[in-house]
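Sync notes, pocket subgroup
Present: LS, DG
LS reminded everyone that the earlier model was apo-only. Rerun requested with zinc ion included. Inputs:
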Amino acid sequence: MKIDKLKQIRDNILEEIKNSQTLEIIEANRIKFLSKKGEIPELFSKIREVANEEKKEFGKILNKLREEAYDLINNLKSSFNNTEEDKIDLSLPGRNIPVGKYHPLYKMRDEIKQIFRQMGFSVATGPEIETEYYIFDALNMPEWHPARKITDSLYVDKDSQLLLRTETSSVQIRTMEKTDPPYRIICPGRVYRNEKENATHTAMFMHCEGLYVDENVSFAELKGTLLAFFKVLYGNETKVRFRPHYFPFTEPSAEVDVTCFKCGGKGCSLCKNSGWIELGGCGMVHPKLLENVGVDSEKYTGFAFGLGIERLTMLKYGINDIRDIYENDLRFLEQF
Ligand SMILES: [Zn+2]
């Protein structure tokens, strides 16, 4: 046999092995070419027929062929085995991809905005660091009022009278200063007080103050507005009740209760068996406030109210500790 002939046979054998498409064909080719009676051992026996001067090269080519065929078959086999292992198991349960969620507090804030927007209110915002003027003086807070003390409010600098706002009513004052009546605004935002933290108090929380000033605005409209709001929030059966109270910035003033939405007013642990839940403060805007910002208090009247967004959130979702809202514990947040 000639060297050229051997080289041709070699190329054909390797080509055939490479083209093996299944594990069965690989195994069949292994037997065909490499087993004891396979084609490659058969070729070794042909060395006798080769001319002496070519024997050495003939043997070299054959040895290399046997080696290559062997490696090729092993590689093909192992690549097939890996593919078997990597096959996708469609019966496995899917992996959960964590998706961000809306914070319950912001859900409530946006729901409040939405309800008041439908009643014609617009949203006003203002700075969180305020001067004493916008927090106390303009709101008719007397000089002796305890909120002015550093034990109650968080001052940035007492000398320059800068403090973190204790309510968002400052935004109402700023809005009234800039534009003419009528005003129909809500001011949701963060407020700060020097409170010791416990299950119902944090030093930072969210308020939503509302203001409506126009000609002939009456207390009945205040009642109607808050009743409409609470009905959307807690259901059509909800009733409201107003208890006389004192605030420096409104006259008359009241605290607002709604019928317990858990027991419907029968009495339960949520409402401490009273059937009512206290939800905010309100009243008719004190004429002095209007005069402070240059609004004619003979011509215009108005009402204002304040709601604690945490409290509304806690009641709606059955949250017992206000600190849960701010601790960013995923186990808590994932429930909403
Ligand atoms: Zn109840």
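DG: The longest helix spans residues 52-86.
LS: DSSP finds twelve helices and ten strands in the chain.
Action: DG to write up.
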